[in-house]
Design a protein that fits this description.
Strand content: 15-25%
Radius of gyration: 18 Å
Number of domains: 1
Shape: globular
CATH class: Alpha Beta
Number of helices: 12
Number of strands: 10
Helix content: 40-55%
Length: 278
């Protein structure tokens, strides 16, 4: 299997990928509003062939498969731990119109002109060469087919990221030193999204700013435990030998308490909802 995004493959096949696979039930159902946004724009019909890019543990792939009941859905991801969870949940769902493939979407050998719709929920910010990646995805989408995805806006506008990390750091987290490097905020600039997609061969690119609260747990303690396993928090703990996991958990719990409500812990986030046509 050809994987140019080796750093991402290492990350998502290590503790980060295991954490997200193990925590799938933790967030299941909590982001229904985000799913309504993504799949409302994708407008999947029951006979569509759908590609889910960076499908992770398969939650969005299963949603897509239910919408495309007489079609077919393929989820692709680099992370073996998350794909193992996705495949198991796919079997439990009873759906027979979906499958999962391990691969790097930047170079994965998708069939040409095959898919009616390609979707992604936070799965398209990690490409080493985004133009090449979207061009490869574009070749897999039939002429006139659609690409729809959501990704974060500027780091400072994403409370779900800044609030917990600032509490641990003692100051707001700094933007990435290289804004163009693969990472959560690599497509935070609207103009870059439009340029990348245009160079990759897409047209009619629409980039809409939306604010959607994201779910992180049933209460502050549960959300703190979730954050402890994420990459950014683990990186903070690795850099600060004086900050123990127990102390970090206490800080996170106190910080997240104001965001807890009857339906769980939600933190706001500024996102881009992007659609384009092959």
């Amino acid at each position: 299997m050809d994987i140019p995004n080796t750093a991402q493959a290492t990350s998502w096949n290590g503790p980060e990928g295991v954490h997200w696979a193990d925590q799938k039930d933790h967030t299941a159902g909590g982001n229904a509003a985000l799913h309504r946004l993504l799949f409302g724009a994708a407008a999947i019909t029951e006979t569509d062939r759908v590609l889910d890019i960076g499908c992770g543990a398969g939650e969005t792939t299963i949603v897509a498969a239910r919408l495309a009941a007489r079609g077919h859905v393929v989820g692709v991801d680099l992370s073996r731990p998350m794909l193992e969870r996705a495949r198991a949940d796919g079997v439990r769902s009873g759906l027979v119109n979906l499958r999962f493939e391990e691969g790097d979407a930047q170079v994965h050998p998708f069939p040409d002109d095959h898919f009616d719709v390609a979707v992604s929920q936070f799965g398209i910010m990690f490409f080493a060469d985004p133009v090449a990646a979207f061009a490869n995805i574009g070749r897999a989408v039939r002429p006139g087919g659609r690409l729809v995805f959501v990704c974060p806006q500027d780091i400072a506008r994403c409370a779900w990221y800044t609030v917990p990390n600032a509490a641990l750091l003692g100051h707001p987290p700094e933007p990435p030193a290289d804004a163009l490097a693969p990472g959560m905020f690599s497509l935070a600039d609207r103009s870059r999204i439009e340029r990348v997609l245009g160079e990759a061969g897409f047209r009619t690119v629409t980039t809409t700013a939306v604010d959607v609260p994201l779910y992180f747990g049933r209460d502050a303690a549960n959300a703190a435990d979730f954050y402890l396993g994420t990459g950014p928090v683990r990186a903070i703990l690795e850099r600060d030998a004086t900050l123990t996991p127990a102390a970090a958990r206490a800080i996170l719990r106190a910080t997240l308490e104001p965001y807890a409500g009857p339906e769980g812990v939600y933190l706001g986030g500024a996102l881009w909802l992007v659609s384009a046509e092959r």
